[in-house]
Design brief:
The complex is a heterodimer of chains A (about 425) and B (about 250). Chain A is about 20% helix and about 35% strand. Chain A contains nine helices and 19 strands. In chain A, the strands form two sheets. A ten-stranded mixed β-sheet of chain A has the order 2-1-5-7-9-11-13-15-17-19, covered by helices on one side. In chain B, strand 9, helix 7 and strand 10 form a beta-alpha-beta unit. Chain B has a single domain, classed as 3-Layer(aba) Sandwich (Rossmann fold), CATH 3.40.50.300. Chain B contains ten helices and twelve strands. Classes of the chains: A alpha/beta (about 425), B alpha/beta (about 250). Chains A and B meet through helix 7 and helix 8 of A and helix 2, strand 7 and helix 3 of B.
Chain lengths: ~425, ~250
């Protein structure tokens, strides 16, 4: 009981400053989320699920003030890519910087505007996947997000929009504490690319619920922003139908604390769910990828590809699980998590799990951590490539498997350039 | 071209002396072969010259066109014109062969203050050189040496040599692991690069490679020293009588 009591105490502290304003169609959903949250309390270090990552910074009442980050002359991510821009500055929608939401094949609305209506399609999605994702593991930070989100976007994809939807999270306030919640519904046969970038806030709570109908496809590419001191807890929930595809890639370069959770459910058959990440940390950096993929339908393929480059005491965490339910025959599950340590001070903690109840499946998982291959380094140098450039080349080669998960070549090249310039800035 | 003077080398981490006073002088355009039994220090010599970690030079010098190699970083030695064809070429997953070649060519050009080669010119050049070595376009696209056969790896080394146009080439047991046809192909690649003042140091166990790459001088190495120097006939002598007789003479 003592543990539970402390979870409730920390919850009361955490939500004391947040405004709970249920209204319109969303009111009941927010109330449900608050009830779920109250039953769970806040996560604590004794929770198995938070064993490798200290949630203290995410549940503290006050946000530790951060220094703002100046990216210098580096252009923002996806700069050269034609896209529909939706800009939030410290969680507040910025109309002046945003594009008109009108785009063929997709309906985009802001949560803060849409929630005032009496009925909405998102009633069937908002908090629904988050709630499903509370078992078998409790994710109170996601429930908190559903209850208290101040804004976000509701995107309904009915066709194949000509350009990506791009969510841009700018950060100008040293103590901003932002809660955004997005719902993405990809209708049957529709396809969309969704981009996200920017540090968003000093502390950022992010939930995205994605529902992909039969034959639908979602490409999600995210760059979490180079601000060193920001903290973020993100949750990606996806429900995937028949012959559908969900593909997500996240680049995390810097960030004092990042917890990226993904809960993907392959409910139909013959679908794919790919989730990949490239993380680069130098010094005060803690990055946690926690993934749960459920195969409920037959003949689905899932891939988890997570690569982390760590130096100067940076920490990387990976907790990844594949659950193959009875009946999910011919499942093809692949999971790899690897860390490249550029010095002896960094650490990588990995917990890969497989739980399989079907008898005709193919599942593989691997986890490694290691240093730069000195033999390869010498080989490159013996051909005239200077040591730093040779090391960058090998680091990029290490990350390549994650980057190739991005299908669009221009976006993939953009990400590669950002990795390259990070490596150049963080050379010894 | 290359002047090695009284070179003494030990392993960095243990008290094991490997080279005990190597002297070798290679003139411009000359081809020298070093033969010798296992453990005589042949490969160590090639690694020390190219700057691999793990060795400590306790005495002596090695100069390339008058510049002290032993004080340079490996990349500087390469830019100065030294090239080592590895006995075991390294596989580098994730780095495309083309990217690797172009990065190396341009890094060397940059180090020498020359303009970088354009993408178009590079592509033309590499295709032309690859063709003569029977390296197909698919091999150029694959990651460096990954999934290459033994012969393909060695041909890839020679392709790098052809692209980088070094002044002083060291071939470390380039014949190891090759069948007769593959060896001929590699030797033809090397012979095509002879001339224009380019020098070679060919390290091998066996005389047969020297049937295809004809040396001007043959040296026998044993216990960290060159114990005998002669013409191409010396290689035949080794082939017929083994090292035993020579070792007796040298000690």
């Amino acid at each position: 009981m003592a543990v539970l009591q402390s979870k409730h105490n920390t919850l009361q502290v955490r939500i004391a400053g947040l405004r709970f304003e249920p209204q319109g169609w969303l009111g009941a959903l927010r109330a449900d989320a608050l009830a779920r949250l109250t039953a769970m309390g806040m996560p604590g270090r004794r929770d198995e699920y938070w064993r490798y990552t200290n949630p203290a910074g995410l549940i503290a009442v006050d946000v530790a003030a951060v220094s703002l980050f100046d990216p210098g002359d580096e252009p923002p991510p996806f700069d050269g890519i034609d896209r529909l821009k939706i800009v939030f500055v410290d969680g507040v929608f910025d109309a002046a910087q945003s594009d008109n939401f009108a785009l063929e094949g997709v309906q985009v609305e802001r949560l803060a505007v849409a929630e005032q209506a009496d009925i909405h399609w998102a009633t069937a999605l908002y908090g629904v996947l988050e709630s499903r994702g509370q078992t078998p593991v409790q994710r109170p930070l996601a429930a908190l997000n559903s209850a208290f989100a101040t804004d976000g976007v509701l995107v309904r994809v009915t066709g194949k929009p000509s350009k990506p939807i791009s969510l841009i999270y700018q950060h100008n306030s040293k103590t901003s504490d932002v809660v955004l919640h997005h719902c993405i519904k990809v209708e049957s046969g529709a396809e969309v690319t969704l981009l996200e970038n920017g540090p968003a806030a000093a502390r950022f709570s992010h939930v995205m619920e994605v529902d992909i109908a039969d034959g639908g496809r979602l490409h999600h590419i995210r760059a979490q922003g180079r601000a060193h001191q920001r903290q973020a807890a993100t949750h990606l929930f996806a429900r995937i139908g028949n012959h559908a595809a969900f593909k997500s890639f996240t680049l995390t370069a810097n960030g004092r604390l990042t917890r990226n959770e993904a809960v993907l459910e392959l409910l139909g058959s013959d679908s794919v769910a790919h989730i990949a990440g490239a993380a680069l940390g130098d010094g005060d950096f803690h990055h946690d990828d926690t993934v749960f993929i459920t195969h409920a339908g037959a003949r689905c393929e899932s891939r988890q590809v997570f690569k982390k480059v760590l130096k100067n005491g940076a920490t990387g965490v990976f907790q990844g699980k594949i659950l193959v339910k009875q009946g999910a025959q011919k499942t093809d599950g692949y999971q790899i998590s690897q860390a490249l340590m550029l010095d002896g001070e960094s650490q990588f903690l990995a917990k890969p799990e497989l739980e399989i109840y079907a008898d005709d499946v193919k599942c593989s998982h691997g986890s490694t951590s290691g240093a730069i291959d000195e033999t390869a380094l010498f080989y490159l140098r013996s051909r005239g490539v200077p040591r730093r450039a040779a090391q960058s080349l090998l680091v990029l080669a290490f990350l390549a498997e994650a980057i190739t998960e991005i299908e669009d070549e221009a976006i993939s090249e953009d990400i590669r350039q950002r990795l390259q310039s990070w490596l150049e800035r963080h050379e010894h | 071209m290359l002047e090695i003077n009284n070179l003494h080398v030990k392993l960095e981490d243990e008290d094991k002396v490997i080279l005990r006073g190597v002297n070798l002088s290679i003139g411009a355009g000359e081809v020298h072969a070093i033969m010798g039994p296992n453990g005589s220090g042949k490969s160590t010599l090639s690694y020390v010259l190219s700057g691999r970690d793990g060795y400590a030079v306790t005495e002596g010098s090695a100069k390339l066109e008058g510049a002290e190699l032993l004080e340079m970083e490996p990349e500087a030695r390469a830019a100065a014109g030294l090239f080592l064809a590895f006995q075991y070429p390294v596989e580098i997953p994730g780095v495309g062969n083309m990217t690797f070649l172009r990065t190396a060519v341009n890094a060397q050009r940059k180090a020498r203050g020359e303009v970088e080669i354009s993408a178009g010119d590079f592509l033309k050049l590499v295709r032309e050189k690859a063709k003569t070595l029977k390296i197909d376009a698919e091999m150029l696209k694959r990651p460096v040496n990954v999934g290459f056969s033994g012969g393909e790896k060695k041909r890839n080394e020679i392709l790098q040599m052809a692209m980088l146009e070094p002044k002083m080439c060291i071939l470390d047991e380039t014949d190891s692991g090759l069948d007769v046809d593959a060896m001929k192909l590699v030797a033809e690649g090397v012979n095509a690069l002879r001339g224009a003042g380019r020098s070679f140091l060919v390290i091998t166990h066996y005389q047969r490679l020297l049937d295809h790459i004809k040396p001007d001088f043959v040296h026998i190495m044993a216990a960290g020293r060159i114990i005998k120097t002669g013409g191409p006939d010396l290689a035949l002598e080794v082939e017929n009588n083994g090292y035993a007789g020579l070792l007796g003479e040298g000690v």
